[in-house]
């Protein structure tokens, strides 16, 4: 992408309405634009990152055996009356009436709809286990939308739903998602801690929230200090292995949200307990037959008896993750994207657009990098070097390749790693070889 034609409306001033760094940086980098309170348009740079996060989430769900479908954003009130949640959900649900005065709603979550789809088609235990997921926009009329995409009203969620014939099967489905979540967050470059959590309005008895520690987090959390240096995926099993020993080992290291933590009965001595703030980026539940019973989602068991299915649901805040990543990875100059979700792999900075030799070398590097499958932000704009450096730091591209007439006279270009600031002067070919 040539930045001279890329729609990236960066801001020089710090927007005053943004209270936390991730929101400020997303606005300054021209990634999002608020269109109503808590509702955002995703501009090209932001949308690139959103798609990268979404793709990693998708790949890890697929690897865990979940199958992707897509349910609509608008739902009928009918189903929610069946589960009893139409009245319980309260003001967070955006209720809509269509022209025939039918009651509809913008889905805040999909337990009811997926249960309806399930019961329409699945009739036998032989068709289980089944895990279905989608990545879709949700709407919750949050009382206080804030912190940009972190607590939006419209937001992108991955939500998966598992169906099993018995509690043992449901436990295995839960453990698969538990492992899939650890793998997902690790790939994104985040350290997420699974914490014992309250099940809240979804119900059920087994639940974990996946929490990124950050001062700006909205949840109070507690964990054993061993979590600080834990490589959680070390010696992790494969998806098809028995996951129970791994699950037991990881969950034996204490971590709980403040709703679950009881200071009077803490299993961890004060000296080993970390008390911190955190961002909830994922939440998994096992809730048994809470929906299958009232909604009559039953299958025929091995002896022909009718069995209500055991269910679980598994959410990831895909759009919230973007804010969480930036909270965890930035400096005074801007965002530092982890490689896996960066909007571009390489930022190519032309220090003197219009200089024939510099333009020629840049065009050649640009073509070669793109041909090798790398995504390149080529700053070919007619701007001062200082402005180009500042913008490239701001948008956080992991590698910066700086090309100018002075270096070229000596046959070198400069390669900079955004995260460390480390710079190296190299011959053009050597720089290229390092990136490919
Ligand atoms: P919170 O406690 O932050 O309100 P929640 O517990 O209500 O979140 P869940 O119902 O568990 O949310 O939804 C699954 C995931 O969706 C959450 O873990 C979070 O990452 C994301 N999420 C929930 N609400 C929002 C929101 N308003 N904006 C962005 N992401 C959200
Ligand atoms: Mg909420
Ligand atoms: Mg919550
Ligand atoms: Mg939650």
TrEMBL record:
Alphabetized PROSITE patterns for the sequence: AA_TRNA_LIGASE_II
Biological process per Gene Ontology, one example term: prolyl-tRNA aminoacylation
InterPro entries to which the protein is assigned, alphabetical: aa-tRNA-synt_IIb, aa-tRNA-synth_II, aa-tRNA-synth_II/BPL/LPL, Anticodon-bd, Anticodon-bd_dom_sf, Pro-tRNA-ligase_IIa, Pro-tRNA-synth_IIa_bac-type, Pro-tRNA_synthetase
Gene this chain is encoded by: proS
PANTHER family, per database record: MITOCHONDRIAL RIBOSOME PROTEIN L39/PROLYL-TRNA LIGASE FAMILY MEMBER, PROLINE--TRNA LIGASE
Role played: Catalyzes the attachment of proline to tRNA(Pro) in a two-step reaction: proline is first activated by ATP to form Pro-AMP and then transferred to the acceptor end of tRNA(Pro).
Family: Belongs to the class-II aminoacyl-tRNA synthetase family. ProS type 2 subfamily.
Catalytic activity entry: tRNA(Pro) + L-proline + ATP = L-prolyl-tRNA(Pro) + AMP + diphosphate
Cell compartments where the protein resides: Cytoplasm
GO molecular function terms attached to this record: ATP binding; proline-tRNA ligase activity
GO cellular component: cytosol
Alphabetic keyword roster: Aminoacyl-tRNA synthetase, ATP-binding, Cytoplasm, Ligase, Nucleotide-binding, Protein biosynthesis
Name listed for the protein in its UniProt record: Proline--tRNA ligase
